[in-house]
Backbone:
């Protein structure tokens, strides 16, 4: 299976290990991800949209048009890119006035977009195009000692009219994946609560409060690790976990893995190839016995 | 008893202040009409003030007015107060209010539209950071085609705030040590595309 791959800016910088682990498991599963040549930033939810809405939509349309040339669906790893590109796609389909304006802007750069591309999250592709059964077949090391809290966050499942592959408030897709890999799922209410997103840059206190609630909630429910499906959620929960600890004088020490890293571990892929050494909270203590010595 | 009476009095004067701040019927209608034209504001008049949005909002604790109150303030034509509220900037756009709203009011998207209006009319949040965040993000992406994370941080950081500088330097070090701090700015090949797109979309006035 071949797809147009849209990594997004974070996967090229602060979330490199997410992209690496995605590539590693894709190889095992026979999924071919071809990076969209010369893709640009999607506008990051409303970072650009709230300042220059039309420009933001046209930025997305450029990505969509580049993917359309490749003739396949767009696959993203980032929930924020997933939302942003899907929103633009929907707006262009429904609002002909807007479509004309965006088309004109695209035309000035010698591009056009007919509207035939579908935007999909890598998780959804794994579940619908591959299926849990096929993923289960590739499991070499069942992760029996891991109690995994799946963190869905916001844009993977909301708003429901854009992302309707799972329930907006009680999603189960990641949990099902966790069980397929031989690990135990952890039920906790924080799984779709917001981590604070870009407030981490502009209003850090608020973001730290939100992330603290999620982390503590998952720990209290018995989790010994957490998985995410978005680089921004991962950044707030992993890279900033130390800041949460120092602000609230807590010891959390909860390893946060990208869901692709968890799959990779179960597939028996080397921790180094999955970029586990790049996670800020060291996941060493929860790795299956055999890999612990290698990592 | 004394306390209750005092409370009652405070409440009364609060209410009187609120009534005094209300604008004419004309202004009320104007603001409602203006909001109804924005993405997210289309069915703002359907609100039944049930409070589900206010109770669901994860960042309500940091806002001066709850989502429900903001909607009522739009109905009442309190344009200045809405645009200078902290609510429009504190919203983390998690879409839980829209998901739960029994009247399908897309409050989250409305927040983005109101931010846009607030930036255009030079309203700022209490720290003065938010409009700068949006502008800087735009400028960086327009320059490189992609986001350059360290540049966004350094542009927004208050250089006078030593504590925050120190704190962010520690975060930068944590990332750099793991090879995740992108020192060199990214660059897309067809950057000219963005310039012509910007030029064209700017002509449209948005």
Residues:
């Amino acid at each position: 299976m071949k797809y147009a791959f849209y990594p997004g800016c974070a996967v090229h910088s602060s979330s490199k290990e997410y992209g690496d682990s995605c590539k590693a498991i894709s190889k095992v599963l026979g999924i071919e991800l071809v990076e969209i040549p010369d893709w640009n930033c999607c506008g990051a939810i409303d970072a650009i949209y709230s300042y220059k809405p039309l420009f933001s939509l046209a930025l997305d349309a450029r990505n969509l048009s580049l993917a359309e040339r490749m003739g396949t669906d767009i696959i993203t790893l980032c929930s924020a890119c997933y939302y942003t590109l899907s929103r633009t796609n929907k707006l262009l389909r429904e609002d002909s006035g807007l479509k004309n304006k965006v088309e004109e802007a695209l035309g000035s750069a010698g591009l056009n977009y007919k509207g035939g591309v579908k935007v999909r999250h890598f998780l959804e592709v794994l579940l619908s195009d591959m299926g849990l059964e096929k993923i289960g077949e590739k499991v070499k090391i069942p992760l029996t000692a891991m109690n995994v809290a799946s963190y869905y966050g916001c844009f993977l499942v909301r708003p429901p009219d854009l992302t309707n592959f799972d329930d907006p408030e009680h999603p189960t897709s990641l949990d099902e994946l966790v069980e397929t890999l031989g690990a135990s799922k952890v039920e906790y209410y924080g799984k779709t609560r917001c981590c604070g997103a870009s407030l981490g840059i502009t209003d850090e206190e608020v973001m730290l409060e939100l992330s603290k609630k999620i982390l503590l909630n998952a720990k209290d429910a018995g989790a010994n690790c957490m998985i995410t499906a978005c680089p921004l959620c991962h950044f707030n929960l992993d890279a900033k976990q130390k800041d949460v600890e120092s602000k609230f004088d807590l010891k959390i020490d909860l390893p946060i893995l990208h869901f692709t890293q968890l799959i990779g571990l179960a597939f028996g892929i080397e921790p180094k190839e999955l970029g586990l050494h790049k996670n800020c909270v060291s996941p060493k203590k929860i790795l299956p016995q055999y890999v612990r010595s290698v990592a | 008893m004394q306390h209750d009476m005092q409370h009652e009095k405070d409440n009364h004067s609060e209410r009187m202040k609120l009534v005094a701040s209300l604008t004419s019927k004309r202004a009320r209608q104007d603001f409602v009409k203006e909001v109804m034209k924005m993405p997210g504001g289309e069915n703002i008049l359907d609100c039944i003030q049930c409070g589900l949005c206010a109770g669901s909002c994860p960042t309500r604790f940091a806002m001066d007015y709850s989502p429900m109150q903001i909607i009522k303030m739009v109905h009442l034509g309190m344009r200045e107060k809405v645009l200078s509220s902290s609510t429009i900037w504190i919203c983390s756009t998690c879409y839980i209010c829209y998901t739960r709203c029994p009247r399908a009011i897309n409050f989250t998207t409305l927040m983005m539209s109101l931010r846009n209006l607030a930036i255009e009319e030079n309203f700022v949040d209490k720290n003065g950071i938010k409009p700068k965040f949006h502008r800087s993000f735009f400028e960086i992406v327009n320059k490189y085609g992609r986001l350059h994370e360290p540049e966004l941080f350094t542009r927004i950081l208050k250089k006078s705030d030593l504590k925050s500088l120190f704190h962010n330097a520690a975060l930068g070090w944590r990332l750099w040590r793991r090879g995740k701090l992108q020192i060199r700015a990214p660059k897309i090949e067809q950057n000219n595309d963005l310039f012509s797109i910007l030029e064209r979309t700017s002509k449209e006035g948005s």
The CA atoms of residues 119 and 168 of chain B lie 26 Å apart. Chain B has two domains: 25-120, 130-203. Chain B has twelve helices and no strands. Chain B touches chain A through 62 residues (CB under 8 Å).
